Amino acid sequence: MSQTGNGPTQDAGIAAKQERLRREFWPKLKRNLARLPFAEDLLAAYFCALDPTTPVRSKAILLGALAYFVLPADMVPDFILALGFVDDAAVIMAAVNAIGANLKPEHRERAREVLARAKGGIIEGEATEVEA
Prior knowledge:
The chain is an all-alpha fold and 132 residues long. The chain has one domain (8-128). The protein has five helices and no strands. The chain has helices at residues 8-32, 39-50, 56-70, 86-99, 105-119.
């Protein structure tokens, strides 16, 4: 299967996962931003996963990693101080390494912009979506 070859079923599956991610990502990020030393990588992965130019294989890898961050059940519960996000960070870093050059400088720049606004107390979920 080519990375860019999408069938209707595959497109629908990716679209459904992207929609769920859009709904659940921002609330969890807002609740936990101060405890996420890997926030820039997390946000860059988010923007890459929603970028229409990202190949399907890379989107699938990132959506899986981002779902692991969003879902409440994981290997190390997120509420455990100092350890709660270690597994999430490992999954995000593995995904970022796996997709290589598909994570573009513009994804990292968007991540830095969101983090800069967040330091001022502003996190705008829908306003920071990837522009189509």
